[in-house]
Specification:
Rossmann fold, globular, six-stranded parallel sheet, alpha/beta, nine-stranded mixed sheet, 19% strand, 16 helices
Length: 406
């Protein structure tokens, strides 16, 4: 038995190529190398606002996707509003479907996609290939009604009901999560509290907590970034943060510790979302902002940091998340200071957890002073069991076993 996976993404393939990394991307990467996966059809983030629709049309339909490291890209279907391409360079067959039809109707998306899938899989008649719909995108559930599948999987990454960017869509999300709870054959969750969330919606079985993983080789084997590529004027010790600075980021906390530590450099590697009031920090002489860097370069910046920090808000949304950053910092052997939540309590013996400003500042000092070789190796050793390969293998095994029982 082999798998054909139709994956509804929480981002676009072109965004991954530009350096964005998330659970969705990491799972896709490992699936594309899995011996049981024949093909993957990636459905780019389906736009539900006009602004996002224009962006998707310009970046993913009007212009061809960014070349996949020089590998061949074959156009399977093209219209003014949709496109499907086959991407070379993967062990499995990989297709990318982009459309703005969702601005009109999700039903149109499902029907168009189903026709294209039948065209692609028509040669599978003599093979035992099972179609699995695997969704990361709770903004649509139409596939339950209008697409054929042997199994449906929903991988819950956070709880979008409490995400500040989806405030205007909470009613739709609440309704969709109820449908997902009722109709999905399998549900994976990034955080343990999400198991309880689905239980409250009446889903008692076939819900599996599979926490985030980390690409061990990618982070452990990276070399430090060349000093000439670091922001001008930066000096040790360096306190580092990798990731997008968005609503969950505690600007007030970073401002406090930066002012308290003029002898330290604070290196922020990632873009700043529109609407985040960051002007006060940009003017501080010991804060250095690189903007977005590609995922492949992120570990090299981490290797230059003496301490990794996660100054995030503690709220209901954070309850349903699972920190990728903590895993990535620890995989590099770095000491970590983080605010509570996001599952970091599992590593309380490896990192420092503090919520109040004074305690967070003290934890940074403690981490700088107590960071010997033994502690570095202990962090790296523990993180090996969190490699994404183990996580994805577990997911695939659950899927295969469920298909056998059906």
């Amino acid at each position: 038995m082999n798998l054909e996976i139709v994956m509804f993404n929480m981002s676009c393939f072109s965004e991954w190529q530009k350096g964005i990394s998330n659970r969705n991307y990491q799972v896709f990467k490992k699936l594309s190398k899995h011996p049981k996966v024949k093909r993957i059809i990636l459905v780019d983030f389906l736009p539900f606002t006009f602004k996002r629709g224009v962006r998707n049309w310009l970046e993913d339909i009007l212009y061809s996707p960014v070349s996949n490291k020089g590998k061949k890209i074959e156009t399977v279907y093209k219209s003014p509003v949709s496109q499907m391409v086959k991407m070379g360079g993967f062990e499995s067959e990989v297709y990318v479907f982009s459309t703005i039809l969702s601005l009109i109707s999700d039903k149109l998306v499902s029907k168009k996609l189903d026709k294209l899938l039948n065209k692609i899989s028509c040669k599978d008649d003599k093979e035992d290939v099972k179609r699995v719909i695997w969704s990361y995108f709770p903004m649509t559930v139409d596939y339950f009604k209008n697409m054929k599948a042997d199994l449906t999987v929903f991988d819950a990454v956070d709880n979008w009901i409490y995400h500040e960017s989806f405030t205007n869509f909470r009613d739709s999300l609440k309704s969709n999560y109820k449908i997902i709870a009722k109709k999905s054959d399998l549900i994976f969750t990034v955080a343990k509290p999400l198991v309880g969330f689905f239980k409250e919606l009446g889903r008692e079985t076939q819900v599996y907590w599979i926490s985030n993983g980390v690409d061990i080789d990618h982070f452990e084997k990276a070399k430090k970034i060349d000093s000439k590529d670091l922001p001008k004027g930066i000096k040790s010790p360096i306190i580092g943060y990798i990731g997008t600075i968005q609503d969950r980021f505690r600007v007030d906390l970073l401002e406090y510790i930066a002012k308290k530590n003029p002898d330290k450099s604070f290196l922020l590697v990632g873009p700043i979302w529109p609407g985040i009031n960051f002007k006060k920090l940009e003017n501080l002489p010991n804060i250095f902002i690189t903007g977005r860097v590609q995922y492949k370069k992120a570990p090299s910046f981490l290797k230059c940091s003496d301490v990794g920090i996660i100054p995030h808000k503690t709220n209901r949304f954070i309850t349903y998340t699972n920190s990728l950053k903590a895993l990535e910092y620890l995989a590099c052997g770095k000491p970590v200071v983080t605010t509570p939540g996001s599952g970091v309590e599992r590593f309380s013996d490896l990192l420092e957890i503090a919520n109040k400003k004074e305690a967070f500042n003290e934890a940074i000092e403690k981490s700088l002073k107590n960071n010997d070789k033994e502690k570095i190796e202990k962090r790296k050793k523990r993180l090996k069991q969190y490699d994404w390969k183990f996580k994805v293998d577990k997911m695939v095994n659950i899927i295969l076993e469920t298909l056998k029982q059906n």
